[in-house]
Amino acid sequence: MKRKIFTTALLSCCFMICMAAVFADLNGKWKGAITTPDGNAIDVAYTFKVDGEKLTGTAVSQMGEVPIDNGKIKGDEFSFSVNVSGTDYPHKGKAYADSCAMDIDFGGSSSHFVVKRDK
C-alpha cells in the first residue's frame, strides 16, 4: 500500500513539473545578447505580453525600441518578428521557467541565443 501511494505521488510530481515546463509563463521582461553572423554581440531586452495564443510586446537593442510583430505562442513554443530599419528579423523560440532559447534569422544566416528573465 505504501509503495502504491509513493509511486502515485512521484508520478503526480513528475506530471506537474512537465506541465509547468509546457505552460512556462512568457509574460514579462527578458534580457540577453545576440551574436550576429559577423561575430558582433548585441545586448537585447524583450518585454512579452501573452493573450491566449497571441504574443505582443517590444524588443530593445542599441538600434532602439521596436514592437513585436506577428507574435504567436502555442504551449512553450513561440514565434514573432521585429522590423529594424525596414528589415524583418523573424524569431522562433522555446520558453522555460527562467529562460528562453531563441533563433533569429538574419536573412539566410541564423543565430541561436538565450535570454533570461529580468528580475
TrEMBL record:
Keyword hit for Signal: yes
Keyword Signal recorded: yes
GO MF terms held by the record: hydrolase activity
Source species, domain of life: Bacteria
Signal peptide (residue range): 1-24
Alphabetically ordered keywords of this record: Hydrolase, Signal
Name this protein carries in UniProt: Glycoside hydrolase
Organism: Mucilaginibacter rigui
